[in-house]
């Protein structure tokens, strides 16, 4: 089983090192190969997603990804910015189905910024469409405004766009995931304003007819953002578009205690997957040895489950994470009174010891 390891920028290398440590400790027959990506690749070869990195990713069963980006690249032309690497990988490999499970471990009930009773036992699965929407729609660009209130003024524009088949396939993913859980899907849209999301809602309704055992609700995204902090446990599977899913998954991460706890899996129709924490490169804490590696370690567990057929090993990692939390070990982002503060490496070591 071939795994491409792409650490990237900021805290990326620190957290990926811990996930690799955990994978090594499992003594499975895995072949790991690293390659540069993001700002690190731009520095080395002038491009955030060098052809050799893309080829390695394509030829692998799975990709373990850290994070990319740094403020210092914000003025580069867009095609050369680190974020293009992750967008390019998602597009090139057709990774349309992004799973972001927001689970509040019982030990972290007090680490959330919400009241413990609101988040205890929380288990939401956000399914984010990942290769369409305003992220990839054309045309986009800057120009002199051809019309409107300020003709001739500098203008920027993006295109929000979905086709029926794109919505159908993510709909099937969501309904099938719900069949294995509590059989409820909430589709989040903005159909009251946007044509794109009226189509989204219509298609979700159509797909839902094929799953009579699953209850489908529709919710506008503004209300969903509010309900997520008012009564998060009302949700089970949430399915939504690329941009709404980006925003709502960061919001949901705080229900679990920290963005440093939220793993993710991005799959294509061949079950090839990219596994990464939902957070970014956290330049504000990079190099300090304090980043929480658990989202990345839990992403490695998802990789074993979804792409490598190693369910038992995945469960072993998840149980080990639970154990270190029960031991009271906390990186600063999930620290609360009465627990023990540890750094990135100590947390990784503790997971290995708990395996
Ligand atoms: P971010 O997720 O990197 O950080 C937001 C906040 O969360 C910061 O205060 C950070 O310290 C904290 N944080 C994030 N991960 C953490 C962890 N594991 N442990 C403890 N604290 C953690 O988001 P941002 O600051 O908006 O973006 C920083 C850079 O990352 C930008 O260049 C952005 O484009 C990029 N980014 C990349 C990815 C990706 O590679 N998939 C995802 C999101 C953002
Ligand atoms: C994420 C990130 C990315 C996104 C960026 C870095 C392109 O925020 O993975 O959530 O917006 O999808
Ligand atoms: Mn994001």
From TrEMBL:
<keyword id="KW-0464">Manganese</keyword>
<keyword id="KW-0460">Magnesium</keyword>
<keyword id="KW-0100">Branched-chain amino acid biosynthesis</keyword>
<comment type="similarity">
    <text>Belongs to the isocitrate and isopropylmalate dehydrogenases family. LeuB type 1 subfamily.</text>
</comment>
<keyword id="KW-0520">NAD</keyword>
<keyword id="KW-0479">Metal-binding</keyword>
<feature type="site" description="Important for catalysis">
    <location>
        <position position="135"/>
    </location>
</feature>
<dbReference type="InterPro" id="IPR019818">
    <property type="entry name" value="IsoCit/isopropylmalate_DH_CS"/>
</dbReference>
<dbReference type="InterPro" id="IPR024084">
    <property type="entry name" value="IsoPropMal-DH-like_dom"/>
</dbReference>
<feature type="binding site">
    <location>
        <position position="128"/>
    </location>
    <ligand>
        <name>substrate</name>
    </ligand>
</feature>
<feature type="binding site">
    <location>
        <begin position="280"/>
        <end position="292"/>
    </location>
    <ligand>
        <name>NAD(+)</name>
    </ligand>
</feature>
<comment type="subunit">
    <text>Homodimer.</text>
</comment>
<keyword id="KW-0028">Amino-acid biosynthesis</keyword>
<feature type="binding site">
    <location>
        <position position="250"/>
    </location>
    <ligand>
        <name>Mg(2+)</name>
    </ligand>
</feature>
<protein>
    <recommendedName>
        <fullName>3-isopropylmalate dehydrogenase</fullName>
        <ecNumber>1.1.1.85</ecNumber>
    </recommendedName>
</protein>
<feature type="binding site">
    <location>
        <position position="100"/>
    </location>
    <ligand>
        <name>substrate</name>
    </ligand>
</feature>
<feature type="binding site">
    <location>
        <position position="90"/>
    </location>
    <ligand>
        <name>substrate</name>
    </ligand>
</feature>
<dbReference type="InterPro" id="IPR004429">
    <property type="entry name" value="Isopropylmalate_DH"/>
</dbReference>
<feature type="domain" description="Isopropylmalate dehydrogenase-like">
    <location>
        <begin position="2"/>
        <end position="351"/>
    </location>
</feature>
<keyword id="KW-0963">Cytoplasm</keyword>
<keyword id="KW-0432">Leucine biosynthesis</keyword>
<feature type="binding site">
    <location>
        <position position="246"/>
    </location>
    <ligand>
        <name>Mg(2+)</name>
    </ligand>
</feature>
<keyword id="KW-0560">Oxidoreductase</keyword>
<comment type="function">
    <text>Catalyzes the oxidation of 3-carboxy-2-hydroxy-4-methylpentanoate (3-isopropylmalate) to 3-carboxy-4-methyl-2-oxopentanoate. The product decarboxylates to 4-methyl-2 oxopentanoate.</text>
</comment>
<feature type="binding site">
    <location>
        <position position="222"/>
    </location>
    <ligand>
        <name>substrate</name>
    </ligand>
</feature>
<comment type="pathway">
    <text>Amino-acid biosynthesis; L-leucine biosynthesis; L-leucine from 3-methyl-2-oxobutanoate: step 3/4.</text>
</comment>
<dbReference type="Pfam" id="PF00180">
    <property type="entry name" value="Iso_dh"/>
</dbReference>
<feature type="site" description="Important for catalysis">
    <location>
        <position position="190"/>
    </location>
</feature>
<feature type="binding site">
    <location>
        <position position="222"/>
    </location>
    <ligand>
        <name>Mg(2+)</name>
    </ligand>
</feature>
<dbReference type="GO" id="GO:0003862">
    <property type="term" value="F:3-isopropylmalate dehydrogenase activity"/>
</dbReference>
């Amino acid at each position: 089983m071939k795994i491409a390891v792409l650490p990237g920028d900021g805290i990326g290398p620190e957290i990926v090192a811990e996930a690799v440590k955990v994978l090594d400790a499992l003594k499975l027959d895995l072949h790991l190969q690293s390659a540069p990506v993001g700002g690190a690749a731009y520095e080395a070869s002038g491009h955030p997603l060098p052809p050799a990195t893309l080829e390695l990713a394509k030829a692998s069963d799975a990709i373990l990804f850290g994070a990319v980006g740094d403020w210092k690249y914000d003025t580069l032309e867009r095609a050369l910015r680190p974020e293009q690497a992750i967008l390019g990988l998602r597009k090139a490999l057709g990774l349309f189905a992004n799973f972001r499970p927001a689970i509040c471990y019982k030990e972290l009930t007090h680490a959330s910024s919400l009241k413990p009773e609101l988040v205890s036992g929380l288990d939401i699965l956000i399914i984010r469409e990942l290769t369409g929407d305003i992220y990839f729609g054309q045309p986009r660009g800057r120009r002199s405004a051809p019309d409107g209130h300020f003709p001739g003024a500098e203008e920027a524009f993006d295109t929000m766009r979905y086709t029926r088949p794109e919505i159908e396939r993510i709909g099937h993913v969501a309904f099938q995931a719900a069949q294995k859980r509590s059989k409820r899907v909430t589709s989040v849209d903005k159909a009251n304003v946007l044509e794109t999301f009226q189509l989204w809602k219509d298609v979700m309704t159509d797909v839902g007819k094929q799953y009579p055992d699953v209850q489908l609700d529709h919710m506008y995204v503004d209300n969903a953002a509010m309900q997520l902090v008012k009564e998060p446990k009302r949700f089970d599977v949430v399915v939504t578009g690329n941009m709404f899913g980006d925003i709502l998954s960061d919001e949901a991460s705080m229900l679990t205690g920290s963005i440093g706890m939220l793993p993710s899996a991005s799959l294509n129709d061949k079950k090839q997957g990219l596994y990464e924490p939902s957070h970014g490169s956290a330049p504000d804490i990079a190099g300090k040895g304090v980043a929480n590696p658990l989202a990345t370690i839990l992403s490695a567990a998802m990789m074993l489950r979804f792409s490598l057929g190693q369910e038992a090993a995945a469960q072993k990692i998840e149980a080990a994470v639970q154990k270190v939390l029960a031991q009271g070990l906390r990186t600063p982002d999930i620290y609360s009174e009465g627990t023990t503060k540890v750094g990135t490496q100590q947390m990784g070591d503790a997971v290995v010891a708990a395996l």
